[in-house]
Write a structure and sequence with these properties.
The complex is a heterodimer. In chain A, 20% of the residues lie in helices and 27% in strands. Chain A is α/β, with parallel strands linked by helices. Chain A has a domain of 94 residues: NADH:ubiquinone oxidoreductase Nqo5 subunit (Beta Polymerase, domain 2, 2-Layer Sandwich), CATH 3.30.460.80. In chain A, the strands form two sheets. A five-stranded mixed β-sheet of chain A has the order 1-2-5-4-3. By secondary structure, chain B is α+β, with helices and mostly antiparallel strands. Chain B has a single domain, classed as Cytochrome-c3 Hydrogenase, chain B (Orthogonal Bundle), CATH 1.10.645. In chain B, 50% of the residues lie in helices and 12% in strands. In chain B, strand 4 and strand 5 form a beta hairpin. Chain B is globular and about 90 Å long. Classes of the chains: A alpha/beta, B alpha+beta. Chains A and B meet through strand 3 and helix 3 of A and helix 1, helix 8, strand 6, strand 7 and strand 8 of B.
Chain lengths: 161, 390
C-alpha cells in the first residue's frame, strides 16, 4: 500500500483528467486540474483503501510572474496507510477553486487564510472572510508583487480623529 | 411576557483567560453559548512573508517567535525541512542533542500550560510550582545556547555548539527531581473535587471530529486518537528511544489534562535516555556549502574567512523543489512546507501551525455549553497566539 497504488487508483477513477506526478525527496506531488479538485478530494477521503481522512495543510503559493500564477497545495494524510499525499492545482488570478470544506472542516480556516493572504477565492465556502487581517484591508500580502515593507511604509501615519 | 433575545458579548482581545490576544464573539442565550466566533490576527507579523526575503539561515530566529513557549521545537521543524531540501545527513550527537532539547522544551511548554490553565480555573498555587521548574529548564537553555525564551540553538546541519562543561550534571539533576515535582502537581489537581467539576465532561470533542477538524497534538490524543508524529514519521532518531503515546477516552478537558501530564513524564523519560545514550562526535554536519567554518579557522585562514563571509551574506542555494517536514511540537503537528526555486531565498515558507487548527475546532467544543466552561476549554486546547497569527 504505497503512493504508487494511490496514483494508480486515481488514474483508474479519473481516466480523462491529466494528472502530473513527480517525486522529490521521497514526497509525492500530484498536480490535478482545478475543475476536478473537489471530486478527487472526495474520492481520496472516502475510498475504503485510501482513506485520506486528515487534511494536514492547505496553502497557496504565488509563482508570479509565471501563469497561471497561483498554486493551491493540499497536504493529505491517511491514518490507515500512514502516508502523505500532496495535491496541487494551478489557479490564475481572479479565478476561484471549489472549497473542500464540506469534506474536511479543517479547510474552513485554511481556505480563509489562503483567501486573505493570496486573494484566491473558494467557491461554496460558508464563510469567505479575511481571517488574519482586518476587514477593509487592501491587498493580499503574500503575493509576490506586494512589497515586504507594506505598500504605505513611506507615507506618514495620520490616524482619523 | 418580556421579549427574549440573544446577547452578544466580546471576550478579549484583552482577557487574561484567552492566553494572548484572541477575541471571541459569543452569542449567549442566558448563560448558554449559542454561537462562538473566534477572531484572530491581532498578533500577525507576517513571518511567512518575511521569510521569503531572508536567506535560509536567517529564518531560524523567526521560528523562535512563532510558538514562543516551544522555541526549540520550532527550530527543529524548520531545520529538518531545510535539511531535507538539501539532503544533508545530521551527525548522531546533534540528533540526540536536538531530541534532548526538544523534550526539555516540551516539559517547559506543558508547565506553562498547566500553570495558566489551573490559574484560569482558580487554582493559583500551581503556577508558582510550574514556573519554578520551568526556570530550571530555561537556565539550562541559557547555558547551552545563550538564550532563554528564544534560544536559536539549532542550525542547518546540526546545533550551534556542543554542551558546555558541567551542564550534563545539571540536566541530570533536573531529570531526577522532576517525577517528584509531578507528584506535587498531581496532589493539587488530579483528585481535587473543584478541578474535577470544572473539567470532567466539559468541552467534549469526538474522535471523528478531531480528525475532521485537523486537530493534532495532545488535544487530538485526548479524544482517543493514538497518533504522534514522533511515531508515525520518526525524525531526529526518535526511533532509538522508548516511549508511549498516552491517550484519553472521553475527549473532555480532563482527558486533555491527563494526556499532557503523562506526556511530560514521557518527555522526561526521553530526555533521560537521550542524555544517557548521548554519542560522541561532531555536533554539526561537515558540509562546506551550508555550515559556517569554525571561528578559530576564520581568524587564521583566508579560505575559511571567505567561506564564512559567503555563507553569512549570501547564504546557499538549495536545489529546486519542495519539501514538507513536521515535528510533534508541544501543541501538535508543526510542519514547514518550503518551496525552493533554486535561489538563496525560499520562494515560499509555509508554516503549518497546530494551534491554528486546534483553535478552529473551539466553537465545536463550546457551543451549547455554559460560559464558564469556555475558560477551561480554551485553557485545555493550549493555544499560543504567536503561532496562530504568525
Amino acid at each position: 500500500m504505497d503512493e504508487i497504488f494511490t496514483i494508480k487508483k486515481l488514474k483508474e477513477k479519473f481516466p480523462a483528467s491529466p494528472l502530473k506526478e513527480e517525486t522529490f525527496r521521497g514526497e509525492v506531488n500530484v498536480t490535478v486540474p482545478k475543475e476536478e479538485i473537489f471530486e478527487i478530494c472526495k474520492f481520496l477521503s472516502s475510498d475504503p483503501d485510501l482513506q485520506y481522512q486528515f487534511l494536514t495543510d492547505l496553502c497557496g503559493v504565488d509563482h508570479f510572474p509565471k501563469t497561471p500564477r497561483f498554486e493551491v497545495v493540499y497536504l493529505l494524510y491517511s491514518f490507515k496507510n500512514n502516508h502523505r499525499l500532496r495535491l496541487k492545482t494551478r489557479v490564475a488570478e481572479g479565478e476561484s477553486v471549489v472549497s473542500v470544506e464540506s469534506i474536511w472542516k479543517a479547510a474552513n480556516w485554511l481556505e480563509r487564510e489562503a483567501y486573505d493572504l493570496f486573494g484566491i477565492s473558494f467557491k461554496n465556502h460558508p464563510d469567505m472572510r479575511r481571517i488574519l487581517l482586518w476587514e477593509g484591508y487592501e491587498g493580499h500580502p503574500l503575493r509576490k508583487d506586494f512589497p515586504v515593507e507594506g505598500p504605505d511604509f513611506d507615507k506618514p501615519f495620520v490616524p482619523e480623529v | 411576557m418580556a421579549e427574549t433575545r440573544l446577547m452578544t458579548i466580546n471576550m478579549g482581545p484583552q482577557h487574561p483567560a484567552t492566553h494572548g490576544v484572541l477575541r471571541l464573539v459569543l452569542e449567549l442565550d442566558g448563560e448558554v453559548i449559542v454561537k462562538a466566533t473566534p477572531d484572530i490576527g491581532h498578533l500577525h507579523r507576517g513571518v511567512e512573508k518575511l521569510a521569503e526575503s531572508k536567506t535560509y539561515h536567517q529564518v531560524i530566529p523567526l521560528t523562535d517567535r512563532l510558538d514562543y513557549t516551544n522555541a526549540m521545537g520550532n527550530n527543529l521543524a524548520y531545520v529538518l525541512a531545510v535539511e531535507k531540501l538539501l539532503g544533508i545527513e545530521v551527525p548522531k550527537r546533534a540528533q540526540y542533542l536536538r531530541v534532548l532539547m526538544a523534550e526539555l522544551q516540551r516539559i517547559a511548554a506543558h508547565l506553562i500550560w498547566l500553570g495558566t490553565h489551573a490559574l484560569d480555573v482558580g487554582a493559583m498555587t500551581l503556577l508558582f510550582y510550574n514556573f519554578r521548574e520551568r526556570e530550571e529548564i530555561l537556565r539550562i537553555f541559557e547555558e547551552v545556547s545563550g538564550g532563554r525564551l528564544t534560544p536559536t540553538y539549532l542550525r542547518i546541519g546540526g546545533v550551534s555548539k556542543d554542551l558546555p562543561v558541567g551542564i550534563e550534571e545539571k540536566i541530570k539533576a533536573f531529570i531526577e527531581a522532576f517525577p517528584g515535582h509531578m507528584n506535587e502537581y498531581e496532589t493539587l489537581l488530579t483528585k481535587n473535587i473543584i478541578w474535577l467539576k470544572r473539567t470532567k465532561e466539559v468541552g467534549i470533542i469526538s474522535k471523528k471530529d478531531v480528525i475532521n477538524w485537523g486537530v493534532t497534538g495532545p488535544t487530538m490524543r485526548g479524544s482517543g486518537v493514538k497518533w504522534d508524529v514522533r511515531k508515525a514519521f520518526p525524525y531526529s532518531s526518535y526511533e532509538d528511544f522508548e516511549f508511549d503515546i498516552p491517550i484519553g477516552s472521553v475527549g473532555d478537558v480532563y482527558d486533555r489534562y491527563t494526556v499532557r501530564l503523562r506526556e511530560m513524564e514521557w518527555a522526561n523519560a526521553i530526555a533521560k535516555q537521550a542524555l544517557e545514550k548521548l554519542p560522541k562526535g561532531p555536533v554539526i554536519a561537515d558540509d562546506p556549502r551550508v555550515v559556517l567554518p569554525e571561528k578559530e579557522m576564520v581568524l587564521k585562514d583566508i579560505a575559511s574567512l571567505i567561506r564564512h563571509f559567503k555563507i553569512a551574506s549570501e547564504g546557499f542555494q538549495p536545489p529546486q523543489g519542495e519539501v514538507y517536514a513536521s515535528v510533534e511540537a508541544a501543541k501538535g503537528e508543526l510542519g514547514f512546507y518550503i518551496v525552493s526555486d533554486g535561489s538563496n531565498h525560499p520562494l515560499r515558507v509555509r508554516i503549518r501551525p497546530p494551534s491554528f487548527l486546534n483553535l478552529s475546532a473551539l466553537p465545536r467544543m463550546i457551543e451549547g455549553s455554559l460560559i464558564a466552561d469556555v475558560i477551561s476549554t480554551i485553557g485545555s486546547i493550549d493555544i499560543v497566539l504567536g503561532e496562530i497569527d504568525r
